[in-house]
Amino acid sequence: FVVVDTGDEQVQMAKDEGWLVIQGDATEEVVLQEAGIGSAAALVTALDTDAQNLFVTVTARSLNPDMFIVARSSHVSSEDKLVKGGANRVLPPNVIGGRRMAMMALNPPISDYLDLVAHGSGVEYRLQEVELRPGSPYDESTIAEARVRELTGAYILAVRHRDGRIDHNPAPDSVLHVGDRLVVLGTESQVSALSARART
User: Rounded to 5 degrees, what are φ and ψ at 52?
Assistant: First the structure.
């Protein structure tokens, strides 16, 4: 990945971490192009204002129609504008933070476990999404027929179908199709094995 920032301190911190970094204004098209926006798979824009994030989103979408864009939103009222501007996901930190705090207060063990699985270091299991690509043996098969747990060791927790439906804890007779995304839990090797089968 490439970090783009205007601040001297932030740029130096990124360099100290060994990251690729460009010092410049991400709202400028030439800076995004220098960062390789045309071939990027995804963009996260988390600037100070919603107007800046909207400008980056619109510019990035015009330069790369196929990339996945995640935009930060300070105000709920800006979410619709960011989506219309080309963002695939809009994240308001205050809302998300409030939900996480509520979850932590109501069910601390579950909150801690999900944090470890999603972000913890040295933890064996990971949550990951795997897309079914053309040629996958899972296409047109049921969950039972796919035998994912038996063949790879990974667990399918949910299926995000290509039509937008989300099937939580899918039934054995739930049918998979190319374009569906499997939300799975497993070790790195288990998820890698599943990814290989999902894409071949």
Answer: -65, -45
